[in-house]
Amino acid sequence: MTTAAAVRPASIEEAAAAIADLAVVRPAGAGSRAEWGGSDPAGAVTVHTGGLDRIVAHNPGDFTAIVQAGVPLADLQRHLAREGQWLALDPPDRGGTVGGLVATADSGPARHRYGGVRDLVIGITAVLGDGAVARSGGTVIKNVAGYDLGKLFAGSYGTLGLVAQVAVRLHPLPAGTATVVATTDDPAALTAAVLAMSRHPLEALSLDVLWRAGEGRLLVRFGGVTAAARAEAATRLLTGVDVTVVRDDESIWAAQRAAQRGAAVVKVSALPTDLPAVLAAAGPATVVSRAALGVSWLSFPAGDDLATRVAAARTALAPRPTVVLDGARLVEQPWPAPDPGMLALMRRVKERFDPTATFRPGAYVGGI
Amino acid sequence: MDGHELVERLRRVVGDRWLLLDAHDLRTYESDGLLQYQQVPRLAVLPGTGDEVRECVAACAQAGVPWVARGAGSGLSGGALPVKDGVLIVLSRLNRILEVDLDNGRVCVEPGVTNAAVSTAVAPDFFYPPDPSSQIVCTIGGNVAENSGGAHCFKYGFTTNYVTGLEVVLPDGAVVTIGGKELDPPGYDLLGAFVGSEGTLGVATKIWLRVVPVPEATRTLVAFFDSTRQAGEAVSAIVQAGIVPGAIEMMDATTIRATEEMAHAGYPVGRGAALLVELDGAEAECDAQFAQVTDICAAEGSDDVRVSRDEAERALFWKTRKAAFPAMGRISPNYFVQDGVVPRTTLPDVLVRIDELAAEYGLTVANVFHAGDGNLHPLVCFDAAVEGQAARAEELAGRILDVCLEAGGSITGEHGVGVDKRKHMAKMFGEDDLAAFQRLRCAFDPEGRANPGKVMPTPRLCGEVPGVYRQHPLEAAGLAERF
């Protein structure tokens, strides 16, 4: 039995050998989301993915890449950009790795157009508790052979196994961008603007809301050679809000991504039409919403009564499920209580994949 | 519960009319769309509600009887092939659209609703993008089981990208709601695991789907080339230019000839390849990119680019493409439809390799494919009346999958593994991979009752968790192996 508190395998084989010898494992990337999920038990050995640092393949003609878990997302994007491509995932960047991104299924504004981690991972290689190295999917963008374990591992928070390597679908970088910015302090008008936009075939890259200190902004980003013209055209769909088009829009979106983090962040799953209720429940928190998807992040600044403010917001959002991401340590339970039937099924999945309870026991939904 | 008790219990659940015991009635269900496999089930039930489905599954669980769920039976991998001593649960009566909520871009349907009916229910402003060729008859429940794609999935994605929630009856008879109308339910993504699981994890009785606005503009062209290699280069050039067409479909010379006899679209018989490219989206972007695509086709060697002038002509282009499978019946008494995937850039070399194999076997292989995502549908032609030719054709179809795997592809892009491709699974996946699949299967269905004998290459047993080894009767009889 290995006694070190941390190991740093340099290959998937080394990771498998190390994990087979460990009783309790906590996979870790760059630590940019280290706080997320429940607490790990004392004695958990951290398996750092930093040594799994290879971009194994980039096939520009096929718009695919194979990348190991420890590669920082920013490094991967720089590599892909040389061919005018990217992995269309843009979570707030604090140096996080591809593996951490997959394990937490984190996302950014590009999710509106391209989907999330689950939609872009086309193959996965995972190390299980007994050291087995299991693959699912492949390296082609269309494939229905076998079960899709990539989706199962996406967002599993390292509780089923170590995500060691993924194959991903890539997209072309947009030729140009422009963003419609609509401003209002009226939640009803803001929601009406969101629904007006989301019912039209705009093919926007992103459709986000930012709500801060009683002021709301709808941000709709267009990409392609005609981005600016389409943004101008889209403004005609909006009434009752102040509208401008911003062509040099990168800073707007950098700020929007940054607002998705905070001293405490509560993520809520809702519907687009729930936006007024979500804004009301947020109180003084800043809200970032993928408005056409209904997924929002409430971001709270630091302060003495932070835990109380988070708890109040979660209560106000109920019965919508909420997860505390940043600031998870402030609360007793960062996860919502799952439906008993789903919990039983998820437990069975955990028991089959990790029968020895090696991976982060107790850190997941329902104490899994 | 003995066999008689099971029958009586099922009779009470669905009523006399919807319980089929007679061999003649059951014959209707002996095959799905893949006719070379036939198996009459012990009995069939046609429940009328989700609750009746649950009761049927619970009755099977108590009686220890395996079952298979079936939608329209249009699948092409034998995924809905009945089990000899099992119950067939036919879902065609569960055909209600339960909710349409366009503000939130959602519909909720029962599994027996057809794929096309979903788009009809949200027309004219919205549509449901996955569009398998069988969309007029195939059901959403079957699409969920198979993770169906279609011609437009290169741009729009597959069934799995559109399902947000499922009410599922698990093989033990319990009902769970996985996901729902909202996205990102906290916990394992069991939706992702269930969609495409080919009926082996349970049966969906209610399905929430995402629908999207109908694109502002659609532009369609067909370009003819001297060879599939040339057409393949054009596809590469289009995609490399950063254009993501709604669809890019290719037909080879044999397919052009066969479809022209049927669809009479005025296609030049004798040309090496036809490329159908459809762009959709915002009108301005669409027009800009369409001009680019037209130029690329010319630059890559097409001297015959036909742009659809109206909806009628566009429909004719698609009719011709979709006629490819049935049209093959005009040039060959029988054919197998293969379904393989290769990385798109390997297409030209793979097609040469397929031609070489066809010559080696002395058989004709026509090629029609979703070129954008490298999904090939080689049609292996044969004459069943000629002794041994069917077997040779089947062997050739298998060799084509080997070529796909050697190129870094997959044994199936959209038809599924079913019974037909079980034997190829071990070529694509290793022991640890298959064992991981089995872990998922056992979490949902430890007794192996839901659609047994599909997907996995050999029957496997689950064992206890945590496992104290006990020999299973099937294992003792040498009929299954344990992991």
From TrEMBL, chain A:
Q: Which SUPFAM superfamilies match?
A: FAD-binding/transporter-associated domain-like (SSF56176), FAD-linked oxidases, C-terminal domain (SSF55103)
Classification via InterPro entries: FAD-bd_PCMH, FAD-bd_PCMH-like_sf, FAD-bd_PCMH_sub2, FAD-linked_Oxase-like_C, Oxid_FAD_bind_N
Q: Which Pfam families match?
A: FAD_binding_4 (PF01565)
The question of whether Flavoprotein is a record keyword is answered with: yes
Secretion signal: which residues? none
Q: Which domain of life is it from?
A: Bacteria
Residue ranges of every copy of the FAD-binding PCMH-type domain listed in the record: 1-173
Q: Where are the transmembrane segments?
A: none
Respond yes or no to whether keyword Repeat is given for this record.
no
Q: Give the record's keywords alphabetically.
A: FAD, Flavoprotein
The name on file for this protein is: Glycolate oxidase
Protein source organism = Asanoa siamensis
UniProtKB/TrEMBL annotation, chain B:
Q: Tell me its cofactors.
A: FAD
The superkingdom listed in its UniProt entry is Bacteria
Q: Keyword Nucleotide-binding: yes or no?
A: no
Domain FAD-binding PCMH-type stretches: 37-214
State a single Pfam family of this protein. FAD_binding_4
Gene3D superfamilies registered for this protein in UniProt: 3.30.465.10, 3.30.70.2190, 3.30.70.2740, Uridine Diphospho-n-acetylenolpyruvylglucosamine Reductase, domain 2, Vanillyl-alcohol Oxidase, Chain A, domain 4
Q: Which SUPFAM superfamilies match?
A: FAD-binding/transporter-associated domain-like, FAD-linked oxidases, C-terminal domain
Which protein, by its recorded name, is this?
Answer: FAD-binding protein
